[in-house]
């Protein structure tokens, strides 16, 4: 599990590309190395990856076909930065919201509005069906960053970013057309899906009741 509080950005210094598979090597900042072991889970742009090799401050991760399909990690080139977060420990402060590191989709940056002290970024998801899980003032994970949703339309949503977030994460360098990783809030998903299922069951029961043939006593 992760908290969505990015602990640092780090460059991908090497990429070993294979068919539907790649290994990328990240140069870790010193403060994130203590206690890091093979098999540890680390969030890379919000995607939970497993440490496969450690050579000093160079840490390797394997990216499978599904990861490359669903996330923006397949588009990262050598020299590009990724947001990093080590897995949360029991007793850690949860400054954001609990996140699993399971990316459901990418979203495209479609509008950026910058003012003196903050930045508003608008995103568009590839399928409108996912918008039902994105609620005004709800939680969302964007490239591993726990953020509060701002305005929401039928096909787009935005977040408001303070200077600290812009400086400490890769969102400060995002441009129009860039793809970001999206993790939906599982509690919101569960509530929306449950309500939909209850309503469908009620509609189904009403139809069955209405179609029942009348008895001789009616």
TrEMBL record:
Top-level taxon of the source organism: Bacteria
UniProt EC number: 2.5.1.9
First and last residues of every Lumazine-binding repeat: 1-97, 98-195
The reaction(s) this protein catalyses: 2 6,7-dimethyl-8-(1-D-ribityl)lumazine + H(+) = 5-amino-6-(D-ribitylamino)uracil + riboflavin
Pathway given in the UniProt record: Cofactor biosynthesis; riboflavin biosynthesis; riboflavin from 2-hydroxy-3-oxobutyl phosphate and 5-amino-6-(D-ribitylamino)uracil: step 2/2
Alphabetized GO MF terms: riboflavin synthase activity
GO cellular component, one term: cytosol
Pfam families, per the entry: Lum_binding (PF00677)
CDD domains: Riboflavin_synthase_like
Domain Lumazine-binding span(s) in chain numbering: 1-97, 98-195
Gene Ontology biological process terms from the UniProt entry: riboflavin biosynthetic process
Function field: Catalyzes the dismutation of two molecules of 6,7-dimethyl-8-ribityllumazine, resulting in the formation of riboflavin and 5-amino-6-(D-ribitylamino)uracil.
Name this polypeptide is given: Riboflavin synthase
Organism: Enterobacillus tribolii
Lineage of the organism: Bacteria, Pseudomonadati, Pseudomonadota, Gammaproteobacteria, Enterobacterales
């Amino acid at each position: 599990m992760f908290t969505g509080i990015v602990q640092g950005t780090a460059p991908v210094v090497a990429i070993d590309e294979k068919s539907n598979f790649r290994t990328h090597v990240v140069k870790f900042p010193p403060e994130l190395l203590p206690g890091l072991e093979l098999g540890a889970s680390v969030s890379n742009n919000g995607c939970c990856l497993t440490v496969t090799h450690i050579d000093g401050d160079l840490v390797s991760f394997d990216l499978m076909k599904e990861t490359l399909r669903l996330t923006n990690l397949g588009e990262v080139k050598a020299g590009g930065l990724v947001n990093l977060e080590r897995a949360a420990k029991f007793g850690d402060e949860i400054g954001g919201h609990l996140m699993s590191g399971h990316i459901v989709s990418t979203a495209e940056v479609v509008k950026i509005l910058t003012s003196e002290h903050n930045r508003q970024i608008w995103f568009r998801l590839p399928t409108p069906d996912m918008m039902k899980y994105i609620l005004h003032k709800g939680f969302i994970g964007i490239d591993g960053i726990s953020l509060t949703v701002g305005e929401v339309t039928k096909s787009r949503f935005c977040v408001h970013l303070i200077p600290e977030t812009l400086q400490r994460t890769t969102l400060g360098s995002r441009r129009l057309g860039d793809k970001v990783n999206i993790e939906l809030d599982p509690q919101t998903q569960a509530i929306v899906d449950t309500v939909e299922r209850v309503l469908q069951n009620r509609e189904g029961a009403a139809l069955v009741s209405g179609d029942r043939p009348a008895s001789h006593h009616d």
